[in-house]
Design goal:
Shape: globular
Largest sheet: 7 strands, mixed
Strand content: 15-25%
Number of helices: 14
Number of domains: 2
Distance between the termini: 24 Å
Radius of gyration: 21 Å
CATH architecture of the largest domain: Alpha-Beta Complex
CATH class of the largest domain: Alpha Beta
Bound molecules: flavin-adenine dinucleotide
Structural class: alpha/beta
Helix content: 25-40%
CATH topology of the largest domain: Polyamine Oxidase, Chain A, domain 2
């Protein structure tokens, strides 16, 4: 059978693309190498507890019709109520000598920043208004350093670090900087449109997407990896699966990532020797009480113990001085099971973890515990110490992320080379997801929808008699 479209990967971008294709009567098939869907944002059960792989916060949570999440849900015909969103109570950006709180009311961030940096009050207000009115360009934009742009507007390195800490952690593949376009998207997503958590975690969102996918008649095949993208000259015509069978289609959409998709086309990516891949070590602590009972009352806490931002690789397997704490219980209306969790995320060095894996299971497991303990001990100098309350702990590393998503080096935010039009040089093939340039859960869904609208549905409309 010939398909209208084959979609590689059933992460958030692939699921959204599949729904959109099905809604318009396209014969589409989602191909997912793993047993579960969700990709970087999947779920699992361990020792009787349900965990999310990657959910800290759903961005763009505003219920305004113009909000990005509202637009995504309308495009997918998913009612907002299906997500059971609980807004954050409040969150914090903390360095050893300053803290800035924010909530879903952007006025709190503005007043906190103005209080911490009174000399920059006017420049901050101008920046906030500029970003609020900014609309991302439809055409691909060249990279520009957010650090340089912010420094030019605000003139204060420390204030720039405060703004880069959360935005780097929620979307940058670069060390201590982020692309200016991505910064503005993330600033709007996090600070202006606000964050929330679905009651039930990522399963609630994934269930809503999967139910809708099935209702639209799009098939999802799990345990079904794509080994190669089939080319006819410079045109993608189908895929070869891990079992050797071949499928053909007019369009192939890939959420595997830029370098990974080029490799599927038989092209060797050319890594930039100056660039170091960033990945995460993530620890999930289940406590004997809620974190709020210990005074850990932020929904998300972005922190840095060093004087300057250190969102960067360390020669050691992890960089414990800078990270994120995420407490699902500090959102409104959450399930009791999640209310006792603290997730801690720090930067990890993929190469060091590769070496640890090579030394065998025992050393790898011991290193996971050691680096998780180092990260928790470091955070205890800035936050209430929760360690004595940990009943259960699970830790994952760049190796886990690479194994479950196929992303080289466990890269969470993909390649710095984003392709806004999804074009990687082959007709009939488009990137969707992180490397198309829209970040996070909501961005990934938007990417899947946008590429289908522009390159599959519009193409079909143009060729209609
Ligand atoms: C620890 C962590 C925390 C995060 N926290 C948040 C958060 O709080 N909020 C937020 O908005 N975002 C968060 N993110 C980011 C978010 O998860 C991603 O931006 C988003 O899920 C990316 O979706 P995607 O569809 O682009 O790609 P992916 O989720 O990577 O999906 C790609 C899919 O393709 C499959 N695949 C790859 N190659 C093949 C192949 N050859 N054949 C078949 N299948 C293949 C993979 O198995 C995978 O399922 C987090 C990520 C991590 C890792």
């Amino acid at each position: 059978m010939r398909y209208d479209a084959l979609v590689i990967g059933a992460g958030l971008s692939g699921l959204a693309a599949g729904i959109r294709l099905g809604m318009y009567g396209k014969q589409a098939l989602l191909l997912e190498r793993h047993a579960l869907w969700g990709g970087l944002n999947s779920f699992y059960r361990l020792r009787g507890r349900r965990h999310d792989v990657g959910l800290h916060a759903l961005t763009n949570a505003t219920s305004a019709r113009t909000g990005v999440l509202s637009r995504v849900l309308r495009q997918l015909r998913i009612p907002r109520e299906a997500l059971q969103l609980g807004p954050q109570l409040r969150s914090v950006i903390r360095f050893s000598d300053l803290e800035v709180w924010f909530s879903n009311d952007p006025a709190l961030l503005e007043s906190e920043l103005a209080a911490a940096f009174p000399a920059r009050r006017d420049a901050l207000a101008t920046l906030s208004a500029e970003i609020a009115n900014w609309v991302p360009e439809a055409r691909p934009m060249p990279f520009a350093s957010a650090r340089a742009e912010l420094l030019r507007r605000l003139g204060d390195e420390r204030l720039v670090d405060v703004l880069l800490l959360p935005t780097c952690y929620y979307g940058s593949p670069l060390e201590n900087d982020i692309d200016w376009t991505q910064f503005r998207i993330l600033y709007q997503s996090l600070f202006l449109e606000g964050i929330a958590r679905p009651r039930g975690g990522i399963r609630t969102l994934l269930t809503a997407l999967k139910t809708r996918l099935e209702a639209c008649g799009t098939e999802l095949r799990t345990n079904c990896g794509v080994e190669r993208i089939l080319l006819d000259g410079a045109r993608a015509v189908g895929v070869r699966l891990d079992d050797g069978s071949e499928l053909f289609a007019d369009h192939v959409l890939s959420s595997a990532g830029l370098d990974e998709t080029l490799a599927l086309c038989g092209r060797k990516p050319e890594p930039d020797p100056a660039r170091r891949d960033l990945s995460f070590l993530e620890s999930i602590h289940a406590l004997d009480c809620t974190p709020a009972a210990l005074g850990l009352d932020a929904a998300v806490a972005f922190y840095c113990l060093a004087d300057r931002l250190c969102y960067a690789q360390n020669e050691a397997p992890t960089e414990p001085r800078c990270g994120v704490l995420s407490c699902p219980g500090n959102y409104a209306d959450q399930e009791p099971e999640a209310a006792v969790l603290v997730r801690q995320t720090v930067i990890a060095n993929p190469q060091r973890w590769r070496e640890l894996v090579a030394r065998g299971d025992e050393e790898y497991r011991a290193a996971k515990l050691e680096h998780s303990a180092r990260a928790a001990a470091a955070a205890a100098s800035l936050f209430p110490d929760w360690r004595a309350h940990t009943l259960d702990l699970d830790v994952f590393t760049p190796r886990t992320i690479e194994h479950y998503t196929g992303h080289v080096n466990g890269r969470v935010y993909g390649s710095p080379d984003k392709r806004q039009d999804g074009d990687i040089g082959f007709e009939g093939l488009r990137l969707i997801g992180t490397d198309q340039g829209y970040l996070g859960i909501v961005g990934a869904m938007m990417s899947g929808i946008g590429i289908v609208n522009r390159h599959v549905l519009a193409a079909a409309a143009e060729s209609a008699p």
